[in-house]
Amino acid sequence: MSDTTDIFQRFSRCLLPSDLSAEARIEYAALARVHALQADCASQLDDGGDSLVFVGDGAIKLVAHASDEREQVVAFYFAEDLLTVPANGAHRYSLSALRNTNFLAFPYGPFLERSQGHSQILETLLNRHALSLKRSREKTIALGRKTASERLASFLLGMAERIGTSADAGASMLLDLPMSRRDIADSLGLTIETVSRQFSLMRERGLIETQGRSGVLLSSLSALKQRSGSLQNAA
Predict the structure, then answer these.
(1) Phi, psi (5° rounding) for residue 66?
(2) pLDDT of residue 34 exceeding 70
(3) Are residues 35 and 132 in the same domain?
(4) Looking at the domain assignment, is residue 215 inside a domain?
(5) String of DSSP letters for 77-91
(6) What beta strand segments (E) does 45-185 contain?
(7) Residue 206: what are its φ and ψ, rounded to 5°?
(8) 10-31 pLDDT, tens digit each
(9) Range of the domain at 103
(10) How many domains in the chain?
């Protein structure tokens, strides 16, 4: 697990301009709350407003809670990801660690106020939010229009872009997935039985190989793309 200084240094490297004054860095550090979550533990951040979260290390999931103890896995996040956790409203939100995880949480309003006049910080925030919006739109399409097979293929391709390790000169990709099959099912709006069956079908067709509990080798990225329901000429 990283210590507090290491996490803030990572945050500084990713978001803060290199020429930012030491005094300004101290002000950002004063806004930050450090959280250390053990695997399978959850944290609720709502202090009356939105929170900006920087993942120092590990992996977490953002979970939305509705009535009757219903839950939806909204998204997964990994080291050096930046996300916004909404204040509680129509739904309640929590972060749950998939592995031992350290993260920083900032009150979103004061963070933005502190960042006025720092165009580079605001631009980085905008770019990160635009990427998050793109992923949310792609997930909306998957949930609304794609088959179970297409949803899982799209999910694996998305994970390959974010946490994959290239193999065979880029023709295949190795994933170390920290989330369970149930987490994947909850995220994709499927049952765990359907997700397990789709993994089995992909193995049988030579699209993937599974290695233990979390290892997945994507044997053919091109074949998965054809199976994902995406436009084949898309960039």
Answers:
(1) -110, -170
(2) yes
(3) yes
(4) yes
(5) EETT-EEEEPPSSSS
(6) 51-57, 59-65, 71-78, 82-85, 92-97, 101-107, 165-167, 172-176
(7) 75, 15
(8) 999 999 999 999 999 999 999 9
(9) 4-141
(10) 2
Does residue 233 sit in helix, strand or coil?
coil
> Are 114 and 70 within one domain?
yes
Amino acid letter for position 193? E
> Could you say which of 112, 141, 170 is where a domain stops?
141
Please state, in angstroms and rounded to a whole number, the distance separating the CA atoms of residues 133 and 102: 24
pTM of the entire predicted model:
0.92
Q: How many angstroms separate the most distant Cα atoms in the chain?
A: 58
User: Which tokens hold the place of 148?
Assistant: 């179970």
- Reported as a single tens digit per residue, the pLDDT across 164-175 is 999 877 678 999
Residues 20 and 107 reside in one and the same domain: yes
Share above pLDDT 90 across residues of the chain, in percent, rounded to a whole number: 84
Given a contact cutoff of 8 angstroms between Cβ atoms, the answer to whether 56 and 79 are in contact is yes
Tell me what pLDDT residue 1 has. Answer: 44
Write down which residue in 106, 124, 141 finishes a domain: 141
Q: Which structure tokens are listed for 217? A: 């080798």
d(CA 143, CA 89): 23
